[in-house]
Amino acid sequence: MTKTLPTRSSARTRRAFLRAGLALPALWASASALTPTPAHADPDDATPSTGEGPFFTARSPERTSFRETGLAGTPLEVSGRVLSTDGRPLPRALLDFWHTDDSGHYDNDGYRFRGHQYTDADGRYVLRSIVPGAYGGRPKHIHVKLAGGSRALTTQLLFPEDARGRDWAIDPRLVMAVTDAASGRVARFDFVLG
Question: Which end of the chain has fewer beta carbons closer than 10 Å to its terminal beta carbon, N or C?
Fold first, then answer.
């Protein structure tokens, strides 16, 4: 009887299946138990791309805070790093963020809750904003376009509470690690550019 060795393709498929099986329990665990995209990954673990959506506005202002006096919403701070698939930080990577207000409305006339920034020498970024509202049956999310080195990505960051008990499909690799704090909510997500 001849033994058949697994092909590279079947090994990837098996690895993706096992990863998905290990990720599912995290969706039902508390928000503090969720882990961000891995800091050191192989090319198969790069942060997944999603559609840009209809509400992107080019030439956003450079800023790390979307908070303005008088705006409603729960304060949110999202931080993390932008890394290559071999775990190296990507300094001066461009991140362009946009999201809705707390009622689920985009500012399509101006730049409220829109802006871009660059990572520091260690690939770190920080965005200070509010928790966006859901709209049109979609879960709360933050859009982001990234460019670092010769790589680019458009994706969305999701909240753990929207990954449980819902009808829509949520990619667990895009769920931020979120905790509640006295000052609002604190989230972490490391992007891996493939």
Answer: N
CB 74 within 8 A of CB 185: yes
Cα angle 179, 183, 188 (rounded to 5 degrees) comes to 35
Query: What's the CATH number where 184 sits?
Result: 2.60.130.10
How crowded is residue 36: how many other Cβ atoms within 10 Å of its Cβ? Answer: 21
Total tally of structural domains belonging to the chain? 1
Report which of 170, 89, 153, 72 is spatially closest to residue 124, judged by C-alpha positions. Answer: 89
Q: How far is CA 191 from the centre of its chain?
A: 7
Report how far residue 135's alpha carbon sits from residue 87's, in angstroms, rounded to the nearest whole number. 35
Residue 167, pLDDT score: 52
For residue 155, tell me if it sits in a domain.
Answer: yes
Residue 19: per-residue pLDDT = 45
| Segments of the chain with pLDDT less than 70 | 1-44, 164-169
Integer Cα distance of 95 and 82 in angstroms: 9
Contacts of 168 (CB under 8 A, 6+ apart): 137, 138, 139
CA 134 – CA 104 distance, rounded (Å) = 5
Residue 55: predicted pLDDT: 86
Within a domain: residue 3?
Answer: no
Structure token pair of residue 124: 């770190």
Question: Using CA atoms, how far apart are residues 23 and 108, in angstroms rounded to an integer?
Answer: 36
- The residue segments making up the domain with residue 56 are 8-193
